[in-house]
Please model this.
Amino acid sequence: MTSLNNRTLVNLFIFLCVSVLLSGCGGNRNNAVLPVQENRSMVKPSAINYDSLLAQIDCLIAQVQGLVPSAFKNGATSKQDLLIMLSGVRDKIVSRSPVKAILNQLNNAVVKTVDGCAGNPSGAPDSNDMITECANQVVIHGAVQDLITATAHGGRASITISPEGPLTISTGETVDFSVVDARYDDGTSALGEIADKINWVSSNTSVGTVNPLVGSNTTLTGIGSGVTEVTGGVCGLAGNKVDVTVVACTIPQDGDIYTQDTTLCQGTYNLPGTVNPPYAIQLRGSDFTLDCNGARIIGPGELTQTRGISVYYDSSFITIKNCYIEGYGGGIVLYDGSNGNFLQKYTLNASGIGLLNSNNNIIS
Model:
């Protein structure tokens, strides 16, 4: 028999061991080694929302591009180096690289260039930092961490704000918005992580403005007329958009005369009716609407000769609605020849409605 050298014996021993393990020790297959289970702690590539991550990295790159060179360690050179590094991350996202590869690039290359101020108790940059101006570095570091978290969860967070639109308000009126939910693409809640980072934007600041600009809540104030789009979101993160129509309104003055469509601003107005004849508001003409918009018109008292709203002689097809009138000798008075007018959705705490030689008027 040909003798076997040591190397051959070792290989034979390994072969026999593997055979025993696969067949089960002692012939008992219940003891067979099971296949290694897949590590499910990492999101599978098929479940990743790469498009949302692309939007987020693009926003991060835009933030870095917006910084002045003096914010960087070596000026424009360090700025360009960081942008090249971020472009490398972007390339991995575009090429649908595995999550692990994207995270490795972010954690092992990018983070250490922007974490000195955030991680240093003294609040100063370290030797690895490319951004050395701490205020800007903290912002970029936060955006990088947001991207890391979103990548680990398979995609950016989607934000839900309340109230939902579309909405209609008047000039001077306000509406409060708040973040009510935020979730990553895998369904995990992101509200606690990003709520205080929400950026609020009004698309048309001549129509309405938001304040504060950052945080979980904001208030829109109508300042003009038209439509504005209120958006709540974080850099590169999907946010809600609510269309708000702001209707121009009028602050009533004692003795005002309206001859065309008019919407009053909400509020309480003390209009004593000191003009002659004594009325707070007079309507003249035809085919228009006075929308009090819930405004409260308050007079000097019911035991006076005052009129809250006076519809002038021969006026017709005027609609009066959404009014609260209190404290007048006559709440709404239609004078001679005022025909075909409509009174809708009003409240009178005054001496009623007067119809003086007026016909075919509708009160509902």
Residues 8-43 have pLDDT under 50 and may be disordered. The longest strand covers residues 316-326. The first helix runs from residue 6 to 23.
